[in-house]
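Handout, section B. The chain below has 155 residues.
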Amino acid sequence: LGVMNVEHLHDFEKAKYHYKKSIEIKPDNCIAWSNLGYVYHETDDLENAISCYVKAIEIDPSYIFAKCNLANIYNFNMNNFEKAKKYYDECLAIESNSAIVNLNYALMYPQAKDNGFASPISFDEAKSHYLSAITNDRSFKSSRLDELFNLKIIL
């Protein structure tokens, strides 16, 4: 029910309610924790989002979705590129061909530069991850054109 409330109805309060109920019934459900984190993330409650993602990772350290979303908060919301890199690296250690992880990893470079920070990755690393993202998932190329275009500008 939580997924339906988020994806189809954009009713974050109902989604939160259902994910919390799910966690109440099964506290070790890393997917429910991660999805609750996503709801908090979407409603700009980053502190609770981080807590939920961390809890999901504690339950299942290989759960790539929680790690990637946590990295995205550090990358796109908090400009904490070292922490973002740490979590993206952990994701890639689990699934090196993940298009979304490779793209977001690559986007650390322009994200840092655009916000006046030193990037934790080099231009060549960004380019390599960008190319990996579009090579590993052809449909991904057209589905994220805005982000790909932004990175292409620097390439």
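Note. The chain has ten helices and no strands. Compare this with the example in section A.
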